Amino acid sequence: TSTRWKALLRLYLSLVILIHIEIEAFSTTTTKTSSKSSVRTNNIPKNYNHPQQRRTRIHERRTSSALFTTSTAVAAQQQDGSASSNTQNNKQPIQLSMMEYTTTTSSSDKSTPILFLHGLLGSKRNFNSLATTLSHLLSDKNRPILGMDLRNHGESPTGESMSYDLMAHDVIHTLDQHFSSSSEENQKVVVVGHSMGGKVAASLALLYPERIDGLVVLDMAPAWYDGDCVAWSAVRDIVQSLATKVDMTSCTTKRDVDLQLRPILPDPALRAFVLTNIESSKDSSNNNSVDWSIPVSTLHHQLSTLAGFLELPEEVEYTGDVFFIAGGQSKFIRSTHLPEIQTYFPNHMITTIRGAGHWLHAEAPDDVLALLVKYLE
pTM of whole model > 0.90? Predict the structure, then answer.
């Protein structure tokens, strides 16, 4: 209680100071906070609100988002009809596809496993190179480093809903199955999540804090993104285009799909990333055909859910050490997100990699690796 009062007093004093200060978002590279100190004054946005005002603002935004979600879901059901029979029940956890990036010769009793979670349209393969290099940089060369395909991605089963509480449940269920044969029940992990995987990672820390020994979020805020967010609007437009503008029936090779994607996605690197979700096959006449390896229609219908976050009581927080790494050229972590970050994760640090965009682990892998090693060690 004493610590909370001290934090509120510091926050009040910071707000008084900010009346006379003009702040540019992320004007410094690193912002550090702890349970005993609020966000540094030179990094708090001018429109920083008291936590109760923040809750009111978030509630209003969530109410508006919920109305949009409902109307979108109704339209999606009318357009797409009933879900496919191989789709898992909404409320049941899914056994996710998981891999270990490195082959360990012996297990370590001291080092907590590291778990990587990918973003939208990604897969566990996205971290293959980064995780392998990380294993060589850590002092414990046998530290387990794991990756999972989240539901509706990679080699994991499909599911109608993509709410973050369900996706977090999937991860815990899969970890329980993986470690069931070992002596480590309720095994803790350090989770590293990018983009959508960052929201899943944050959800894990808030819903299952006893299972999370550390949290690293790559370029994502634990916040609700709306139509005014340029970064999220770009992602939404990509998924909508994949679902509505690409005619897969006219394509027989990945090149055919690539040609259709060029007007939609001029960036060749982004197109190559999207094309990792194409699978080739042959029909009964031995003719080539291609199709999406993921349920693009489901992702399209769940966009408003993915734009959101958890509905949690005000007192819920994760008090462990949390590391947010933002891309300097990305807009997914803004100064306006600091209230949410501070409320959910009082012991957090934010670092910006200047020059990197949203896929910072691919654009600046050396910087990300250096920061991960420093945090993990």
Answer: no
